[in-house]
Amino acid sequence: xxxxxxxxxxxxxxxxxxxxxxxxxxxxxxxxxxxxxxxxxxxxxxxxxxxxxxxxxxxxxxxxxxxxxxxxxxxxxxxxxxxxxxxxxxxxxxxxxxxxxxxxxxxxxxxxxxxxxxxxxxxxxxxxxxxxxxxxxxxxxxxxxxxxxxxxxxx
Length: 155
What we know:
Elements: E1 4-7, H1 13-27, H2 34-42, H3 47-56, E2 58-64, E3 67-74, E4 79-85, H4 94-108, E5 113-119, H5 123-128, E6 132-141, E7 144-154
Parallel strand pairs: 4-5
Antiparallel strand pairs: 1-2, 2-3, 3-4, 5-7, 6-7
Helix pairs in contact: 1-2
C-alpha cells in the first residue's frame, strides 16, 4: 500500500485522538499494565493539547487506504514529541516513513541530533533506526507510573 504524508490541521483532531487511543490500547498492552494503558490513552482526550501541537510543531499525518495510518511530530528544538501508528497499518513502513521525514525536517531546521522519550513498545523500532538509550525513566501519569526511555540519534 502506498502512503502519503501531509501536515495535520485542527480538523484532523478527532481522527488523531482515535488513532492515539487505538495505538496505545492495541499495541502497548503487552508492555504495560491495563492501568498504565488506560492512564496513557486518557491523555489523548485533551483537544487543546492536540491543537497546540498542530500549531507549534511539525506535525505529520500518514494516510493510506482511505484512513489515518500514523502520525508524528517534531518540536522546534529537535525533540521528536510523538509517533503513533494505527494497529491496522503496523509493520508496513509507516513509522519509517514518518521518522525519515521528521529527520529530514530536523536537518533543514539545523539540528544535528534528535531526542525523544520512547515507550517500551517503540524502543526496538527506534533502536533499529539508530537511536540509543540515554536512560530509563519513570513518568507520572496521575497516580500511575510508566517506564519509558530517553533516546537520542545523530542525524
